[in-house]
């Protein structure tokens, strides 16, 4: 059933993620390990020369370096940088906390600061994720509206739609336009272009001001916008800049816009990944032995009568509870209804009643488009559900 399909999808995704991580670890190890070994050899050579030149023991020098590492964690550097915990530095820090970037260049050192961070981050991260979801909802609304307008304009050029208005036509093309939704691949392409434009513009600002190369600036943009936040490159850390206030404002705007766009892009890519996993499962299901399927059907024929097997093509959140209940088949087989079946039937009745009350309150039943599965926006939880609902609302002809 549906539960088995979800479990199979979950297990396949877990296996693919583990394999993806193993491949990534092998590639990064092959690329970065030689450089790390060379840097370690150079450091050991410099350390040996320094101890010989100044007549110091290796133990004393290592003890001094450990103390410097502790000072570095507290925000002390050899070069002059701005104070980490002045108001602007603290504001930059809380921005990295609530956005889940977490560069790591500034961390609380006191017990009180660490305790406050736990509660502050708990509420702040939840609120920011809600903001990203709402931003995604409005972004999908704008994209769907623009793409639908372009689609309508193309139909008018072909003479399918009248030029005086959208309504009043009874053609099949107009009926299909009422349920039209943009493809998930078009939305992904638009978000990719928007993220690339923001990253390029931000890199053009970081390169001359921070003194980074353009490639390093692009690298920082991805690490920051995707909320990975390694902390090897961090913007706005020098003690003084030209047009300092304007630069910090631009830095804040670019990080906010970039995080929103990359977050939305990740959610759209997750839909494409889900479609790919479903395609793989379908291919695997086609290779299953038909004899095993007939055995499974025979083992369940006393539970659900063959005449009551329902088509599961139009599965939705509203019908899952009804489809998963097999109490009708059990009662038709002449068996006495059990307490479990009684509670299940009451649950189904309650779900139907809630659906009817919701439709009565809204004044109309919610229409589900027949091609909602074709564009890839059906189903989903959290941010994916927001995208589905918004696309369903924007598909209605305005």
TrEMBL record:
Main subcellular location: membrane
Does the record carry Phosphoprotein as a key word? Answer: no
Recorded topology in the membrane: Multi-pass membrane protein
**GO cellular component entries:** monoatomic ion channel complex; plasma membrane
Q: Which segments constitute the Potassium channel domain? A: 77-139, 189-274
Matching entries from SUPFAM superfamilies are given as: Voltage-gated potassium channels
Keywords, in A-Z order: Cell membrane, Coiled coil, Ion channel, Ion transport, Membrane, Metal-binding, Potassium, Potassium channel, Potassium transport, Transmembrane, Transmembrane helix, Transport, Voltage-gated channel
Q: Where are the transmembrane segments?
A: 12-33, 90-111, 117-147, 184-206, 212-234, 246-266
**Single GO biological process annotation from the record:** stabilization of membrane potential
Q: Which reaction does it catalyse?
A: K(+)(in) = K(+)(out)
InterPro entries documented for this protein: 2pore_dom_K_chnl, 2pore_dom_K_chnl_THIK, K_chnl_dom
Q: Which Pfam families match?
A: Ion_trans_2 (PF07885)
Instruction: Report whether Transmembrane helix shows up as a keyword of the record.
Output: yes
Coiled-coil zones: 33-60
GO terms, molecular function: metal ion binding; outward rectifier potassium channel activity; potassium ion leak channel activity
Indicate where this protein resides in the cell. Answer: Cell membrane
Family the UniProt entry places it in: Belongs to the two pore domain potassium channel (TC 1.A.1.8) family.
Q: This protein is called what?
A: KCNKD protein
Organism for this UniProt entry: Regulus satrapa
**Gene for this protein?**
Kcnk13
